[in-house]
Amino acid sequence: MVLSPTDLHHLLTVLRIPEKAEIRLFNAVSGEWRAHLMDKKRGMLECIECLLPSVPTASGTDLGPFPHLLFPLLKSARLTYLLEKSVELGVGALYPIITEHTMVASFNTERWQVVIKQATEQCGRLLMPLVHAPKKLESALAAWPREISLFVGDERPAAPPIAPFLKKMPSKTAFLVGPEGGFSVREFATFDRLSFITCVSLGSTVLRTETATSALLALYAAFH
Predict the structure, then answer these.
(1) N or C end of the chain: smaller count of CB under 10 Å?
(2) Are residues 165 and 140 in the same domain?
(3) DSSP structure class, residue 15
(4) How far, in Å, CA of 3 to CA of 37, rounded?
(5) Looking at the domain assignment, is residue 12 inside a domain?
C-alpha cells in the first residue's frame, strides 16, 4: 500500500521512522496490521501480518459498542483536550453543538479531524470517531433519534447522582455536556420535558466542560 503525503511526512519528519522499519497500520475496515516501510521516497508499505480483525463501526443510529457525545464549542486549547480525551475514552461519534451560553462561534472541522486522527493513532484504536457538523442544541434535540438515550451532565443541586444509572445504561447511549456558564433555564426545561433525556449529577462541584466529558466517558467505559 502507499501512504498519503501527509502521513508519509508525519512518519519520516515527526516520528523519524527509518526505511525498512516495522510499523503498525490500522483502521476500522482492515483491522490492525504489522508492516514494513519499503520505500520512504514513495511511501510504499508491505503488510506482513494481521494482528487484529476489523471492528464494528458507528454510523447513524447504529452505535455499535461506542457512546456518542454532544459537546459545546470551546476555545482551541480546551477543545483539543476534550477531543483527545474523548477519543481515548472510546467515543463513537462527536456532535458539536451551539447552546444559549456558547462563547465560541466557529468549528473548523478539517482542523479538528486532524486532532482526532492523531489521538486515534496515539491510543491505538481501530475506529476513528465520526464528526458531525455543528448544530444549535434545539435543532440537534429535535432531530435526535428517540431510541438513543441521552444523559446530560447537570450541575443543579436536585439532579440525581449518576451512580445508580451506570450499570443499566442501554447499549445505545449518548452524553451531553454543557458550556462555560452551564445550560440556560430554557434548555433545562427542554431536557425535563423530553422522555429520552436523563439529567445526572457528577458530584457537588461545578466541573469544566472537558472535565465533565472525561468523567462521563470514563464512568461509562468502566461499566460497559
Answers:
(1) N
(2) yes
(3) S
(4) 10
(5) yes
Is residue 75 located within the same domain as residue 41? no
Burial of 5 (0-12, 13-18, 19+ CB in 10 A): exposed
CATH assignment of the domain containing 152: 3.40.1280.10
Q: What is the pLDDT of residues 78-115, one digit of tens each?
A: 999 999 999 999 999 999 999 999 999 889 988 999 99
Asked whether residue 30 falls in the same domain as residue 82, the answer is no
Cα 8 to Cα 128: distance, rounded to the nearest angstrom: 19
Q: What is the pLDDT of residues 134-189, one digit of tens each?
A: 999 999 999 999 999 999 999 999 999 999 999 899 888 999 999 999 999 999 99
Q: Give the contacts of 173 (CB within 8 A, at least 6 positions apart).
A: 63, 67, 68, 148, 149, 151, 220
The answer to pTM > 0.85 is no
Question: What whole-number distance in Å separates Cα of residue 107 and Cα of residue 157?
Answer: 32
Distance CA 81, CA 86 (A): 8
162/22 Cα distance (integer angstroms) = 44
Asked if 165 and 217 sit in the same domain, the reply is: yes
Which amino acid, 223? F
